[in-house]
Amino acid sequence: MEFHDDFPQYELRDQHDEAEGKKQRRRLWNVFWIMLGITVFELSLGSYAASKGFDKTALKVIFISLTIVKAYYIVYAFMHLGHEVKSMKWIIIGPYTTFILYLVFMATVTEGNYSAVHKVSPPDKVYAMPTPAELEKAEATEHEEAAPVKTGNAAEGAKKE
Amino acid sequence: MSDHSSTDYPANWGGGVSPLKVSYGKLFMWFFLISDALTFSAFLSAYGFMRHKFSGTWPEPSKVFHHFPFVEKELPLAYVGLMTFILIMSSVTMVLAVEAGHRKDKNAVLKWMFLTILGGFAFVGSQAWEWFHFITGTEHGAWKDVIVDGKVVHQIVKGANLTFNEYGNSLFGAFFFFITGFHGFHVFSGVMINITIFIMVARGVMEKRGHYEMVEKVGLYWHFVDLVWVFVFTFFYLL
């Protein structure tokens, strides 16, 4: 079989005629209306929750699941991953799923629990970058503090010997 | 051992064709998008971690981003919603350009790509507007301890920069600039790439090639930018 470095078939694989195009365009606009509906719903739910009060965890779960629905539509309909072969789909979806699961755990499960235990409470302190003068001062004091410790260790070492 | 002649091709994969049935350009665009997603998930997970750690002083994004052009009333996150709408809209025009490319309809490709480029500029402009309001801040500002010349000074702070902001924890401003800035730079690059491909299509390069796959490849990048924004919208603004 002759080897083609730039195999033309794959580029031509998705080409279609006007009738098929019409069908695809209708599907794409449907996806657009779904996405728009989801975004409007998210915003109105957010403002409703801000004014009336809503269970925080339930809100998080709703927002994250709607985000995943939107991501599904973008990747499958807009990026045409739904039309690719099965192995191609899994090569792309596998890593993405890993990242998304990590984000979800970070936002809800593990780190949410961590923060409940190790919460950094106010005072509302502002951390500014140290000025050059401050840095110099800090370095000078570091050396002063470090010096006696070193001699102490040396003395201990000498005793052991 | 056995000579790979064309006759035993169906039984054994002998090369020359892609098992994934995609061209190498498209495949590597996907691989690039995966590695890019790694960077963005690093940003967003670091944000989530810091937000929980400093949840006592972390501001509510809906109370920070409530400006809307020409509207005096506070509309929480309405402008971010509009930006999301602009980006999803430009994603739709991009996918319509890809669809027109599959029909080899040059004029339709140009029309939809032009609208996509407009949408991209509109989004970058909206982000500039939002940055402006975040940086200049509110009229009244907020009392903060700020270090000036090595001394802690209690003073009114207005707006935000990388070291402090009036809304709450200083990290909030830094994360805002990094996450939306990195995403905005992606959008800007996407617009530049779209313009390049637009010019190539207009000059008939794709027509000569016999296919419009280049439009599909930049389309993949453009949809990825939209995909990232969907996650930034949820994990930075909504939660």
| Overall average pLDDT of chain A | 74
What's the CATH architecture of chain B? Up-down Bundle
Counting DSSP H or I runs of 4 or more residues, the number of helices of chain A is: 6
What's the main sheet of chain A like?
none
Our measurement of the CA-to-CA distance between the termini of chain B, rounded to an integer number of angstroms, reads 61 Å
Quickly count the domains of chain A. 2
* SSE arrangement of chain B, N to C: HHHHEEHHH
Strand arrangement, major sheet of chain B = 1-2
Average predicted local confidence, pLDDT of chain B? 86
Most extensive chain interface and residues per partner: A-B, 80 and 80 residues
- Name the CATH superfamily assignment of chain B: Cytochrome c oxidase, subunit III, four-helix bundle
**Judging from the principal axes of the Cα atoms, what is the shape of chain B?**
elongated
Q: What amount of the residues of chain B lies in strands?
A: 5-15%
Count of distinct strands of chain A:
0
Q: Which percent band covers the strand fraction of chain A?
A: under 5%
Sheet/helix structural class of chain A? mainly alpha
Strand count of chain B: 2
Q: How many structural domains does the protein architecture of chain B include?
A: 1
Q: Topology of this protein?
A:
The complex is a heterodimer of chains A (161) and B (239).
Chain A: H1 8-13, H2 18-52, H3 56-78, H4 86-107, H5 110-117, H6 132-160
Helix pairs in contact in A: 2-3
Chain B: H1 24-53, H2 61-64, H3 78-102, H4 106-136, E1 142-148, E2 151-157, H5 170-202, H6 205-209, H7 213-238
Antiparallel strand pairs in B: 1-2
Helix pairs in contact in B: 1-5, 1-7, 3-4, 3-7, 4-5, 5-7
